[in-house]
Amino acid sequence: MPPKNRSPRIVAVGSPLTLPCGVTLPNRIAKAAMSEQLGDITGAPSATLTRLYSAWGRGGAGLLITGNVMIDRRAYVEPRNVTLEDDRHLEAVANWARAGSREGSVMVMQINHPGRVAVGPLHRRPVGPSALRPQALGFNLRKPRALSLDDIADLRRRYTCTAELAVAAGFSGVQVHAAHGYLLSQFLSPVANQRSDRYGGSPENRRRLLLEVVADVRQAIGPEAIVSVKLNSADFQRGGLAEAESLDVALALEQAGIDLLEISGGNYEAPAMTGVVQDSTREREAYFLRYARELRARSAMPLMLTGGIRTRALIDEVLADGAVDMIGLGRPFAVRPDIAADLLTGAGQPQHLPTAPRIPLAAATPVNSYLQLAWHAANFRRIAAGDKQVTGPGAVRTLATAGTTVTARALTQF
């Protein structure tokens, strides 16, 4: 049954969606966030990144969500992430916003802090809700420092500052990243968050920081800008955020007045978001659809589903039955920058969406996940250069070059 105040209706992929803040998305296809790693050494968006979003903007998506933009240059998800903590690069950020939105797409900046899974800078100790190492290859080498209450207050200010700067530069809003095992996701997790103060212990306390950040951001950017959140349906990790609690978090976010909730799942220890999941989940198209349907039965909040969507038929089905309002695609945009236009017009009848090759390494699940992302990142420069159909490097070349590239960038990103 549909939730109260939401009548069932047929929704086509090309129909507009007006969010609660009043911003209208021209269609129901979103380019979900993928980490581009195309900032320059100072943290500014590069010309290549701007050209990449110009290509995606021409490709027809109603919504373009950027990859991670860091709120603090002392903590990077990957080297060469864009960082926005003051106005020193605001002109370049404004060029980036204009490039993506020139053809009518709505640009939203994803803002993030990696917490205990920071890759760089290498000379800094990572931070987290508690002083607990993640159990993921490579990330368990440095023990994080537990954040103090003063640190948490500073983080809230940083999220607010980055959101204000993004909107001032021309972005239509921001997406607060609270999924995939990054800092806000760590606070939600009973495994990563073992605090005994008002930010830990009970489910209400563990979601307190996320709700505070959302309230701070909304107050800073006003009622007419988009405030979105990316949330795990579950961590897919023993003892982590479970589905029942995630549903409670989602309903609390609805009460907080967010405009769009993107549903995802997994973290660096169990990377469901990249397709590195149990066989029973991988074989099911749209990994997190069951959760979306359960949430829809209780909520009228605009929902976006990302992860494992492989066919046009599934897109039509979930939009038509009202399970979600937006479809998020990642990997298809790393192969075909104009995939949205094809889905909207039916050109070429793209019944099966393009995706990346599998890069299997026995007993190295987190490495497999990273190599999938590295394969996509290698394609972004080709798209920025004007390629329309990108095949990308092979699995062996990806494996051979990914480690050296990341290491070289990490050593120069201080």
TrEMBL record:
Keywords: Flavoprotein, Oxidoreductase
SUPFAM superfamilies in UniProt: FMN-linked oxidoreductases
Keyword Membrane in record: no
Gene3D superfamilies to which the protein is assigned, alphabetical: Aldolase class I (3.20.20.70)
Residue ranges of domain NADH:flavin oxidoreductase/NADH oxidase N-terminal in the record: 16-341
Coiled coil: none
Record-given protein name: NADH oxidoreductase
Lineage: Bacteria, Bacillati, Actinomycetota, Actinomycetes, Mycobacteriales
